[in-house]
Design goal:
Glutaredoxin; 61% helix; Serine Threonine Protein Phosphatase 5, Tetratricopeptide repeat; four-stranded mixed β-sheet; 411 residues
Amino acid sequence: MILLRNTQRKIMNLIRLSTFLLVSIGVLFNQHVKAEDPGTTGIEFESGNWQSIVDKAKKENKIIFLDAYASWCGPCKRMSADIFTDKQVADYYNSNFINAKIDMEIGEGIELASLFEVQAYPTLLYVDANSNMVHRVCGYREVDNFIEEGRNAKTEGKRLKDIIASFDGAKASAEEMNAMLVTYRNACMDNSSAIEQYFSEKNATQCMEDKNWQLIMNHVNDPTSTAIKTINSNYPEFVSAFGKEEVDNKLMLTYQSGFNRTLRTHDETKIAAIRESSTGLNDDIRDRVQLYMNFENARFEKNYDVYASNLIEYLNKYPTKDARMLNKYAWSFYENVDKKEYLDKAIKWAETSVEVDPGYYNYDTLAAVHFKAGNKQQALSACNKAIELAQKSKEDYSETSELKNKIMNMP
């Protein structure tokens, strides 16, 4: 499974952790392409728009199987090449479903991604003729498992919508809750309603029980949730039980992921609620969280001068040697920032990422920021190293080669 990205170039950004997305609709009648070339056997995907697919599902009284994919997604391509072309798969899906394959980042796929809350690629959706989700999973699936999920989608009680409807989080044990949250995770679905049901019945002492703390650590990702509010209200007790580093890391990661996710939904009410909840954090973590939200909000609004200055302040106050994060930030400066003083900072981050993890993607980013900063020799050296590493690991380095051509043409 791969998290959302918006352009083909950002295949590289899987490592860079950039992420993701959605509003507006444009109906493209010719966007839903077949997974295979003409003449190959496999799942027969519809070529019409979504409404025509829904109409056919109504007429034939069948569930729609929807492969929600992105053009740059590696596992999506593997599903198309290896799984959708399998004879067993094709026989079962062609007999039992109306099949659709839609790029979630173009045309009406954008609106469908919003409708079905697609958070990762590939997401494999099973939808009724009223466009209601009945079942879903995400990530690459082998033949047997993919057929099994199709059978689950047609079996009452095994469909995800039935499992969710029958689950009562308020009465669940920690073990039952964990199993349900794993189900949500396998479907790449928001688990907040189930989490809220469960922890609304738990006080601070109960939240600190080992099984419940593990649920919080592994599954709670909403900064406004009851569980996070309980931690904030009883911060000294949680620190005493689990240590400041563990508690602060959990709070920081929850605010980071929750705020970024909410930015993508354009939910201003929720954004305000997250900002408000951050005021109740302990002093050090509060300042860090709020500075993080400031630079991410500026990035989302494409106010790149504010983004750059706030990010630099953030990394000066809270330095990191996380190679992936430094690579992500350096790449974002390459894409969006022009001031030389800012690019010099990005070079330092990229150099640190290379020191920590001397891999292809990190050298590629180092080459890119040197190029944008006008440093021809350093850019060429990093570019050659990136290509050398890509050749050894059999990575696609075509865009790095294009960058090298640009570097060679520098004065």
